[in-house]
Write a structure and sequence with these properties.
This is CoA transferase. With 399 residues, this protein is α/β, with parallel strands linked by helices. The C terminus is likely disordered. It is built from 16 helices and 12 strands.
């Protein structure tokens, strides 16, 4: 597999970091979760059944080490000697205070790639602030633009900053650093700020603002409620039809489909006319059910789609054909469904291989590899420095 010779030490929890390392693990990297022996990754218990944890931590191993002890720090430094990548998501300075920050690790392994995923980055007045997805979107100015005109902003149902601003840029940054290491033999620090990366997403908004100085308003952006050709409309049966007819040919096809060719010249009409258009289109689409409109547009290239529920999505023929939802067998709870690796490589594709690990499942294996005897391992376990193995089978998905 593409990353089959890469070892990653993953100290992250919850969503951004684990999503990043999941991508690496899916393509062959040996990802070792370094978890606290008492609680581990908080995601193990977040939703009551471990499904969230299991989804993000497939194909990984778990080593449970108490990093606040001298013995735990020593173990981690030995592990870092043989690692290619370390990923962490603590606030700046936490790893340094533990004695296992980038400066300490690069002394034992100069070729190490160290990636820190934080809300605001390693520098600046906000570097030490706490935050979550909603806070990063707020500072970026993006949350202000979510929602309808003259109404309060709404919270998006997916974590844009966590994944788009944190996990994906982190994976890209790690890949770039590994690629550069092939030439220089040296590692480097990868500083991922979720705020920085969310701001970089606004490519349809910020260039116009920089050029004109005009502050966009909620519900008036071209691709966020400003144009009738790019909107969701309710049908007779309370369902929704999404229309993305931005280009003139698609708009013309849509207007013909609803029997209003007189709307065709109004594609780029002023904002007040767009609102009138939307009201008229809504009245028309309310006359038929979703199924009836889909039948009308079945062979029409108008960028018209049903707004699916999750149940409909997993049964959609396109989703089934692409095998994006796949099942994996778990020894204690049976079949678990996963979202398959979405990046498709023709020669070396990613794959689902092993379920998420139990807390500390691979501690003994790892310590043996770096030179600890079975007696030393048992003593460290007794002293509470490590957890190995999990005392008993846990019937929740997370183990």
């Amino acid at each position: 597999m593409p990353l089959g010779n890469i070892r990653v030490l993953d100290l992250t929890r919850l969503l951004p970091g684990p999503y990043c390392t999941m991508l690496l693990a899916d393509f062959g990297a040996e990802v070792i979760k370094v978890e606290d022996p008492e609680v581990g990754d908080y995601a193990r218990e977040l939703d009551g059944n471990g499904a969230f944890f299991h989804s993000l931590n497939r194909n990984k191993k778990s080593v449970a080490i108490h990093l606040k002890t001298e013995q735990g720090k020593e173990i981690f430094l030995k592990m870092a000697e043989k690692a290619d990548v370390v990923v962490e998501s603590f606030r700046p300075g936490v790893m340094d205070r533990l004695g296992v920050g980038y400066d300490a690790l690069k002394r034992v392994n100069p070729s190490l790639i160290y990636c820190a995923v934080t809300g605001y980055g390693q520098t600046g007045p906000y570097a030490g602030l706490v935050g979550h997805d909603i806070n990063y979107l707020s500072y970026a100015g993006l949350l202000h633009l979510f929602g309808e005109r003259d109404k309060k902003p709404f919270v998006p149902p997916v974590q844009i900053a966590d994944i788009g601003g944190g996990a994906l840029p982190a994976a890209i940054g790690i890949m770039l650093a590994l690629f550069e290491r092939e030439r220089s033999g040296k590692g480097q620090f990868v500083d991922i700020s979720m705020l920085d990366n969310v701001i970089s997403w606004m490519q349809t908004i910020l260039p116009h603002y920089f050029a004109t100085g005009v502050q966009p308003k909620r519900g008036e952006l071209m691709l966020a409620g400003g144009k009738a050709c790019y909107e969701m409309y309710e049908t007779k049966d309370g369902r929704y039809l999404s229309v993305g007819a931005l280009e003139s040919k698609f708009w013309a096809a849509f207007c013909k489909g609803i029997g209003r060719e007189d709307f065709i010249p109004l594609l780029d009409a002023p904002l007040h006319e767009q609102h009138r258009l939307k009201a008229e289109i809504q009245t028309i689409l309310s006359e038929k059910t979703l199924a009836e409109w889909l039948e009308i547009f079945v062979d029409v290239e108008a960028c018209v789609s049903p707004v699916h529920t999750l149940e409909e999505m997993v049964k959609d023929p396109q989703v089934i054909a692409r095998k994006i939802i796949q099942a994996m067998s778990h020894s204690s709870i049976g079949e678990i469904k996963h979202v398959a690796p979405p990046i498709r490589l023709s020669k070396t594709p990613g794959s689902l291989r092993t379920p998420a690990p139990k807390l500390g499942e691979h501690t003994g294996e790892m310590l043996s590899e770096i030179g600890y005897s079975s007696e030393q391992i048992e003593l460290l376990k007794t002293e509470g420095v490590i957890r190995f193995p999990v005392p008993k089978e846990n019937k929740t998905v997370g183990g």
